[in-house]
Amino acid sequence: MKRFNFIMQNKKSSLLLLFLILFIFSCSGKPAVKPEETFDPEKAFAKANERLEKKYYEEARASFLEIKNRDMSKKFAPLAQLKIADSYVKEGEPEAAIAEYRRFLEAYPDHRYAPYAQYQIASIYFDQIEGPERGYSGAARALEEFEKLKRMFPRNPYKDIIEVKIEKCKKTIADYEFLVGEFYYKKGSFSAAIGRFEGLLKNYPDYSREADVLFYTGMSYKNLGQKDKALEYLNRLIEKYPNNKLTTDAKKELAKVLSCIPEPQRQKGCCYRRW
């Protein structure tokens, strides 16, 4: 009987020891639970900027996107969107950059950096200008976006530089229109040439090559047999640009046209003048 009690006590002790060992292992196996850190958008923004400066564009954009989604203060979310757009500019992805700047303007149209976003869009198109032949599309889009900037944000901080860039856009577009008109003229498509030249004179009255435009327009009308219109443009050239190299040719052509017009008819028309 004593031996039976001894055995039972040993079993109880063994079971107790076993439970104790299992409890210790189960506790030691659980990792310590750390309290969740509060998201700090300012620190996150600084780190994302560092990545951007180091040209880790994908990582930087991922960080800025996280800021957009988690910034409860909404102070850094707009800036993060701008930085995403800026990153595409730095990476040489203009179309993606434009899309992101437009996304910023749609989400934050009254933000203090909205003029900057619009200016960046216009400038990206402006940078695509290479000359009248290849730069027409970029110039036309840039002009549209610069005018939009002026209209939407009249107090924008880019006023002086905008005017300079607008003038370059207009000159590029006007040069392109002239090249197309000249092409049609040399091809013998005089009606098409007139359409280009008259549109150029109307839309760009201060065009630097206006004398050439007047001459080609007058000659196009002459070749179409429309003497009155030919005289009108040739006379405008002679009166406005007396020292231009084309003026001598204009006078000769005007004389040829006049020689084909009867004297009585010449006396009635204001454009029928001899030079």
Question: Your description of this structure?
Answer:
- With 275 residues, the chain is mainly α.
- The chain has a domain at 209-275.
- It is built from 13 helices and no strands.
- The protein has helices at 2-28, 41-53, 57-70, 77-91, 94-107, 114-126, 136-152, 159-187, 190-203, 210-223, 227-240, 245-259, 263-268.
- The longest helix is centred in the middle third of the chain and has 29 residues, at 159-187.
- The radius of gyration is 39 Å and the shape is rod-shaped.
Instruction: Tell me the quaternary state.
Output: single chain
Radius of gyration: 39 Å
Number of strands: 0
Would you list the SSEs in sequence order as H and E? HHHHHHHHHHHHH
User: How much of the sequence is in beta strands?
Assistant: under 5%
Number of helices, counting only DSSP H or I runs of 4 residues or more? 13
* Helical fraction: over 70%
**Overall geometry:** rod-shaped
How far from one another are the termini? Answer: 149 Å
The major beta sheet can be summarized as: none
Which structural category do the helix and sheet elements fall into?
Answer: mainly alpha
Provide the low-confidence segments as ranges: 1-8, 17-25
Mean of all residue-level pLDDT scores: 86
List keywords for this structure.
rod-shaped, 275 residues, 13 helices
List the helices and strands and how they pair.
Elements lengths: L1 H27 L12 H13 L3 H14 L6 H15 L2 H14 L6 H13 L9 H17 L6 H29 L2 H14 L6 H14 L3 H14 L4 H15 L3 H6 L7
Helix pairs in contact: 2-3, 2-4, 3-4, 4-5, 5-6, 6-7, 7-8, 8-9, 9-10, 10-11, 10-12, 11-12
